[in-house]
Amino acid sequence: MKRPAIEIPEVLTSCMSQGVPEANADKREARVLLHACCAPCSSAIVEWMVNHGLQPHIYYYNPNIFPLEEYNIRKLESKRHAESLGLSWTDGDYNHDQWHRRVCLNQETTEHQMENEPERGRRCQQCFNMRLLAAARKAKELGITVFATTLASSRWKSIEQINRAGIDAQNQVPGTLFWAQNWRKGGLYERRNQLLKEFNFYNQQYCGCEYSRKKEE
Q1: I need a labelling partner for 132 at 20 to 30 A (CA). Which of 19, 32, 38, 146 fits?
Q2: What letter would DSSP give residue 101?
């Protein structure tokens, strides 16, 4: 039998009936904390989750984004999207200096050597590690078991790196489960592009950090 493009974790399917939560199911069990990198990448994933009876809680935590003006534009678009759908939304802390210290520092040599790493290199891995650990901790704080990330919808990112970061975060925060999913599948990437136009989203031209920005320039 062919596997579905989007596979729902068993902890969620156990309280759902044919994709719709059962009337007597514990609503908390159908909740998912969705770490959102931006509104465009969130849109099709959120739509899919809602249409399948899930209740995404949007967690916007992206200290990698530079400069601050760019961060605020993307944050407000994410909030606008969530509010338009009546979804809960949480803003994570923005501390780009802390992000730079944690991500661009070579943990083995304690020297700043990550600036010149290529996309999908060690810098990206450490960035994913930091952001998904924060997502797992936020899920735990909110009493949500399953967490996922819209990072896995980008064709420029390594699914393997993202899944590695998610599993590591899950292991560090007991009681959480990372939903390792390639969100480009199931027609969601094409749907993303449609929703981008429907919502008239701001569509950024680089991933977020100053190094990805320089690459695009």
Answers
A1: 19
A2: H
